[in-house]
């Protein structure tokens, strides 16, 4: 039976507060400064000094500006680090706008296929409602960028630079989502009217042509062939003519993307460790690389990242960046804000509880470029962000090991660093399919 709050209860709460000598002091501080500033423990800053025993030199940070392309920036950053070392191009960037164009275009097609697959369900069904809430967005995951690169390649930023709409994506996203929802009404009606496969295919083809036009007008049309002209760090001039986006990737990055796999730490009861998982309706390229996660313990999770850093290669990772982090100073540390002491309330939840109860999920992707090992154990990590140089230490953040334990959910590592049994599992096990709204399907 529901119970209302009584006057006696309120009076008791008021009396308890009145008897607390510190209550008014705390009230004045919080009402004037806010919760975070009052709860901040600046002793954390000394512990989070940006000095690391393993520290990769990865040059200037990039800036995703007012867009949600962190996953794309982080992935392309790991590739440009490799390219910059090989060809002496310290401040070089790959075109985030090029991969952004094709991701948007492929997401439209992916959405249409999911609309058709669920057309027999009412609009009130959870899956249809999930699709219509956000038909497409800027976010993504590592495997989704691999699917784009495998199909379309990549290009230097100089070949397809940023536009107003790639750097400030709100207008483009709202326009595309309006268009996709409208298209969904047409496709669902065609299915309801028992239209032929050819009629549905013709309707979808017209929709995709319109989508391409919108993207070309807002992001510019992608190049199919180009010359790569540059001066290296030694001031030597180079020009490489007649490249395609795929030949550029093969020649200047040269990775086998199948070697790089997604490792997650999701300590929830429905995801036993040392098994693989995928997420229904998560992806972008129909027929392309699927999202596949290998779930491991936090100890294995960190050791894999450390091994890759020790080998001189940066690590893409996904986390819940807004939790217990100070953006301007670039500090992510569970000791930075002490809300428990401020309010005399126990806010603690386990990592599993935060995932199960909607308190946390992956919201942002960045790059690990260093770690501080003391007696062989990590104490803090160096993080390359994509928010420009005005935050953190010229754009680099410091993350405590405790923060990683609590809020990091995904790393991407070369499978050569996996133990033999986990490598076999990752390569051969058919992944368990998770619901579309599972937190491991969150887009960074």
From TrEMBL:
UniProt subcellular location: Cytoplasm
Keyword check for Cell wall biogenesis/degradation: no
GO biological process: homocysteine catabolic process; proteolysis; response to toxic substance
Molecular-function GO term, any one: cysteine-type aminopeptidase activity
Entry GO CC: cytoplasm
Active site: 70, 364, 385
InterPro entries in UniProt: Papain-like_cys_pep_sf, Pept_cys_AS, Pept_his_AS, Peptidase_C1B
Keywords assigned: Aminopeptidase, Hydrolase, Protease, Thiol protease
Family stated for the protein in its record: Belongs to the peptidase C1 family.
Protein name: Aminopeptidase
Organism lineage: Bacteria, Bacillati, Bacillota, Bacilli, Lactobacillales
